[in-house]
Amino acid sequence: MLCTWLSTVAGGIVVLCVSLKIFLPYFWEDLIYFLRRKRSKATVKKWAKNGIVSLIDLFMQRVEKNPHKPFLNYEGTVYTYQDVDRRSNRVAQAFLHYGNLKKGDTVALLMGNGPDFIHVWFGLAKLGFVVAFLNINIHSRSLLHCINTCSAKALVIGEDCLGSIEKEFILNLLENNVAVWLMSTSSPSQHVHTLPDKLDKVSENPVPSHLRAVTDTRNTALYIFTSGSTGFPKAAIITHLRTLVVSLVFAQCGAVSQDVMYVTLPLYHISASLLGIGGCIQLGATCVLKKKFSARQFWNDCRKYNVTMFLYIGELCRYLCNQACKEEDRVHEVRIALGNGIRPSVWKEFLMRFGPIKIFEFYGSTEGNLSFLNYTNKIGAVGRAGIFSKFLHSFELLKYDIWKQELIKDENGRCNKAPIGKPGLLVFRVTEDAPFSGYAGNKEASEKKLLRNVFVEGDVYLDTGDLLVMDEDGFLYFSDRVGDTFRWKGENVATSEVAEIIGMMDFVQEVNVYGVSIKNYEGRTGMAAIVLKRYHTFNGERLYKHVEDFLPSYAQPRFVRIMDVMQITATFKHQKIHLANEGFNPEIISEPLYFMYEPSHSYIPLTREIYQKVLSGEIRL
């Protein structure tokens, strides 16, 4: 009887497993990710009960538990958790004695990657200040805008940024009662403070703990600025709760305390600061911090420091693939890569070249209230709506008219869901568990991000500004940014898809696709900016045949621009607006331009004569 019962149970388990494999092939991966997310939520609640309500609280716990564990490795110098704690205590003591600031004030940081960025960040946080991370690549006018937007009472300027700062900029700050602190022993004015000398005068004892005490996890911890690609940067409000939640992402990828993380991205970016530094703190792991990304040094550093995981964004992985092949390409301990913006073709090439690294592509934004993680490592996907996803987040893909740049609504003014396999505008439901904190000092921009009464009266959704596609299996794929997609010949053209096809050519190192306007034509036609691989030349005939074979006629770029270096942001994202505005005028652009000329079945040099014929309509597109 018992044998029969056991056989029946065993048979049932086998049938269940086979059925799941056939009908729900991702069931176990969905379940594991769901449980990890639930565990993360439970962890945050447990932290709150134990008085850990900020990233600094979490850091202090790590210092107490494992003070001598290496926390940072910067250019071969190791800083333990205790070292960083004591150094940041000195920063806190210096501002407490000389700062003339109070708890809740905002202090801005203009600093490049290095241990001092973290020492100053943590020291300021220990005093209960809100810290604003400034992009070191923006100029004085934008910097002033950023400082005014977040109402900063002080600015700390890193030693590596001093050379690019104008005296007029500092004078302007002083006139507006913004204190200026330099990470330098010399000052251009008696009114400008120096920090290093004061650090030597104060103790490394902790400042009173009540100063860093957080009364509400929804209070602001940081301001992290958006890229400002469509105007001045906006200060996204990052709450204490968000810093803790984001710190758990690496754990959801299977990372552990023994891992060594390689951070090459700028610390003023949310990926490096919260996913990277915050992730290391949460794990109790070690961070190998790089001043700036170097494709040549990347794998040597990984081998030298026993790196097991790294962060990427934008085209970083492509730059690694563009390096000359070496015998030791697969000789490393890296097992996890987390980031966003890797193209499918690069993804495949990366794995073939560097070995079976688990690439966790995620979708998210600095100001966003929710995110996706491709926990199945499916090439090309930015996330997955599995069978348990409805218990984790609420999102929709809405029908969107790319030509009119607006949502498609029914007769009652309600939005419609995009069908499976078609691009739709991604929106996240704004709820108490998934709030939208908005932008500091910019209520108008905050309100513009919200869509109200989407399906029913009173509902609120966050407009991500991104077009995504969901397939029949629930995988989500990035299609394009609203505004990047353009319309030509009555059809919608996704720049990312065209770039993916052109990037398949063996002479193309990097490609950026955008739409350009032409007089007397509706919409915009395609143009591709291309960086050629070293020792390769542009082949107009081969490119013509390639795009003709793989792209519909309306998506084939009519113009090509050959560039020495691609214009990118500090986080390795392509800049399109400037290129689109320059257009295809050979009298303005000194770089080689080519035109898709059908009679010769090739891309031919774009001369002034051809340019005039296109504008006059003598050559029809």
Describe the overall structure.
By secondary structure, this protein is of the alpha/beta class. It has a domain at 484-616: GMP Synthetase, Chain A, domain 3 (2-Layer Sandwich), CATH 3.30.300.30. The chain contains 19 helices and 30 strands. An eight-stranded mixed beta sheet has the order 2-1-11-10-12-13-14-15. Strands 7-6-5-3-4-8-9 form a seven-stranded mixed beta sheet, with helices on both faces. Strands 16, 17, 20, 21, 22 and 23 form a six-stranded antiparallel beta sheet that branches. Helix 4 (81-98) packs across helix 5. The model has no long low-confidence stretch (mean pLDDT 89). Residues 497-573 form the AMP-binding enzyme C-terminal domain.
Features:
alpha/beta, 19 helices, 621 residues, globular
